[in-house]
Design goal:
about 50% helix; Arc Repressor Mutant, subunit A; 6 helices; about 110 residues
Length: about 110
């Protein structure tokens, strides 16, 4: 891949960036890499995320085919989220981000 190519809608980097955009998306994927999670588990692990933002990001990931949502008919209803096989393809990206982030210092 040449780096001087014009980045249009067919650009694979642009496509990946579109899916992974936003602070919370990659953190949700990071949490789901370890397996199925309930909505409440995700909300607890993502300090600072609003319920509305979490729901929106999960819905976007589901629409993109990266996450599946299973609702169990219990009282109260139990909802679990899990990465699909396509969603698991993001793991090397998250691992690379973690490796890169290890060498960074927090902004003051």
């Amino acid at each position: 891949m040449k780096t001087d190519d014009i980045c249009d809608e067919d650009c694979p980097v642009a496509k990946a960036s579109e899916v992974l955009s936003g602070k919370w998306t990659t953190l949700i994927v990071r949490d789901l890499l370890s397996g199925k999670k309930r909505y409440s588990e995700l909300q607890r692990s993502l300090s600072g995320i609003s319920p509305r933002m979490l729901a929106a990001r999960l819905s976007m990931l589901e629409d993109a085919g990266l996450v599946t949502k299973t609702i169990y008919p219990t009282v109260p209803p139990k909802t679990e989220y899990e990465l699909t096989a396509e969603g698991r393809r993001i793991e090397p990206v998250i691992v690379a981000m973690a490796s890169f982030g290890t060498g960074l210092t927090a902004a003051e």
